[in-house]
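Q: Got a minute? One more chain.
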Amino acid sequence: MSLMPIADALALLLQDVDRRDTEMVPLEKANHRILAQDVTASRTQPPFAASAMDGYAVRAEDAAHAGAELKVIGEAPAGHSFKGFVSKGEAVRIFTGAPVPDGCDSILIQENAHRSEDSISVIEPPKAGAFVRPAGLDFSEGQTLLSAGKKLNYRDLALAAAMNHAELPVVRKPVVAILATGDELVRPGGNPGPDQIIASNHLGVAGLVEDCGGEVLDLGISPDDPVVMAGLVSKAVQAKVDILVTLGGASVGDHDLVQDVLGDQGMDLAFWRIAMRPGKPLMAGKLGQTKVLGLPGNPVSSLVCSLLFLKPLLARMLGDIAPRDDETDAILGAALKENDRRQDYIRARLEFDESGRAVATPFERQDSSMLRLLADSGALIIRPPHAPALDAGATVKILKL
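A: Always. Here it is, folded:
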């Protein structure tokens, strides 16, 4: 089987992927969720003309000059309106947020009034309409203020609350089952034998899933035993997960069992082996309604493949069909050799020169087992197949991390 170009593989992976179902969640759980429907205001804000300052509600014509005397006939704290009508020469003590009494059109702030028992004298006259928030200043009932497809943030939640919504319609989080495979793997904190290593890929992939708005079902680590592996795959299918991610075991070695196990379970294989580095032994398919993504076992390969394939798959399931926006240009910080037939994603340090231009300097070693270099990278330099050799200072495409 020939190596498939990345663009073709991604198109196959995203084929026939629809947005997940809608669910209602309380505002307290809606942060960072994707809004599924437009949200309109169920009330006008403010619902009445309100005072923007502490002071006195007056008629501007009665307080038009310094020294004017007004009789204080009542009080309006926030949450309690003055029930009467304010006539000529009268004022009402008012506090921020309280409704402006009938008959008043302005607020004389308390710093500009001198109080003497039940009357005030004007120190500095207010302009007509001063410090009055008109009804509907912020928004009106029926107005659409939050649009479908928006990733909600803390400001949106505050706005939704002001609109009097206790819950919001959001896109259901795609559930991603993650299955690590291999006799050599031990969970972090365990006691590896002399021939074993600590499993790391599953945690990195799980973190990316959560960052992208998905929910993780950790299936644990399967030994190289087809019966155990098949049981864990069946667990994912029974849970009706949206995506099953396997880690390792998708190649063609004697102990690489994942593809055979998935085939026995009924997986339709979409593609296997991609023209990219790192990550050539990437596999994708479909098991019933579950998308399957078989990631390579090497840590860097699995995480780079997650970034290039799992991230856009999750975005599509959440209703985001926009193209990638994290690719940009940078200045190459060190020379690169001519590339072969695979598209390279080269770990690089990202810095900025005195003019503010991004400078990407590739690390000398690019072994796909070296997680430390990925953690230290600010970008991946993208090298198309058969790209010519480049000197330092050339312009390259990068994928910002």
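A: The CA atoms of residues 1 and 324 lie 29 Å apart.
Q: Perfect, thanks.
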